């Protein structure tokens, strides 16, 4: 079955790396916007890779909350697996893949945790459902039954509607400060374009990579 599946059997956009900006953030914002305009579902979803103290990796999918001069923003509970791993090894990698335009972006760097006020603001700017999920908490802990989750979720939704500013002390906003950002434009003839940015000596250096 796998060998019969088609890859990029569509018209893909072009990308001239000679026109790329000096820094990766403007290009990332452009590609994210173009993916959304092309109808890519949930273009702000990304994979986040972390590692524990012994170096064993973990990966999961979550939402990008912002991308600005400070870095790429995401959030979670401090007690979750990702939160625990970032506490002992504050480095991570992000991956974005937009199949509808044959593009991906990889980001790697150090991660810092924002303070409680900024973290709370991040949560309370999101939806009621996001707050309810935050209020449930206990992320990555062992769950005894689906019924237990249903009871906790119902109570959390009720509180989230009643108290839209309800505090979730464990909710933490994280910011990944990029040291390397790679832009990949797929090509049906496999002449993929890979433009890599590396931050060195206070400035961004660009280089093309073999596909």
Question: Brief description of this entry?
Answer:
This protein is 27% helix and 35% strand. The protein is built from five helices and nine strands; from the N terminus they run αββββαββαααβββ.
Question: Helices, strands, pairings?
Answer:
Elements (H helix, E strand, L loop, with lengths): L23 H14 L7 E7 L5 E7 L2 E3 L2 E7 L3 H8 L2 E8 L4 E11 L2 H9 L3 H9 L9 H17 L8 E15 L7 E8 L2 E7 L2
Antiparallel strand pairs: 1-2, 1-5, 3-4, 4-7, 5-6, 6-7, 7-8, 8-9
Describe the structure.
The protein has 211 residues and is of the alpha+beta class. Helix content is 27%, strand content 35%. The chain is built from five helices and nine strands. A hairpin with a 5-residue loop joins strand 1 (45-51) and strand 2 (57-63). Helix 4 crosses helix 5 (146-162). The chain starts with 23 loop residues before the first helix and ends with a strand. The model has no long low-confidence stretch (mean pLDDT 95).
Order of helices and strands: HEEEEHEEHHHEEE
Number of contiguous helices: 5
Contiguous low-pLDDT stretches (5 residues minimum) are none
Helix content: 25-40%
Give the helix/strand class. Answer: alpha+beta
Q: In whole angstroms, how far apart are the ends?
A: 25 Å
Radius of gyration, Cα only, in angstroms?
A: 19 Å
List how many beta strands DSSP finds. Answer: 9
